Amino acid sequence: MAMTDVLSAEDIKKAVGAFSAAESFNYKKFFEMVGLKKKSPEDVKKVFHILDKDRSGFIEEDELKFVLKGFAPDGRDLSDKETKALLAAGDKDGDGKIGADEFATMVAES
């Protein structure tokens, strides 16, 4: 499944482009711009599984660094600071990774 099966290619392009500058990533604005906030829980879960590259059932810190690339191949890598901030925002149980429910909560709170 591709990200464009769930989200509009145009929205993805706009959202990824909006955060092309280093240290500019804001997950709340990004999830809203990309149209994820308006999606059903099932669609949010599909996006989670696309971002979970190693299919571990979690999005770990090394996968978060490449979260924009998960939406668009030409997306930039997040900085270490941005990656750690995103992990801190999503990792509600403190296990160092983001599970499907934690991801859904992040999207809902954005």
What do you see in this structure?
This protein is mainly alpha-helical. It has a single domain (7-107), classed as Recoverin, domain 1, CATH 1.10.238. The protein is 53% helix and 5% strand. The protein is built from seven helices and two strands. The protein has helices at 9-18, 27-33, 41-51, 61-64, 67-71, 80-90, 100-109, and strands at 58-60, 97-99. Strands 1-2 form a two-stranded antiparallel ribbon. The longest helix has 11 residues, at 41-51. The mean pLDDT is 97. Ca(2+) 2 binds at residues 91, 93, 95, 97, 102. Keywords: Calcium, Metal-binding, Repeat.
- Beginning-to-end CA distance, first to last residue: 24 Å
Cα Rg:
12 Å
Name the average pLDDT: 97
Overall number of structural domains: 1
Into which percentage range does the β-strand content fall? 5-15%
Q: Order of strands across the biggest sheet?
A: 1-2
State the secondary-structure class: mainly alpha
* CATH architectural group: Orthogonal Bundle
The CATH topology is what?
Answer: Recoverin, domain 1
Provide the CATH top-level class. Answer: Mainly Alpha
Query: Low-confidence segments, ≥5 residues, pLDDT <50?
Result: none
Helix content: 40-55%
The number of helical elements comes to 7
Strand count, sense and barrel status of the largest sheet are: 2 strands, antiparallel
What is the name of the CATH superfamily? EF-hand
How many extended strands?
A: 2
Binding site for Ca(2+) 1: 52, 54, 56, 58, 63
GO molecular function, one term: calcium ion binding
Binding site for Ca(2+) 2: 91, 93, 95, 97, 102
Keywords: Calcium, Metal-binding, Repeat
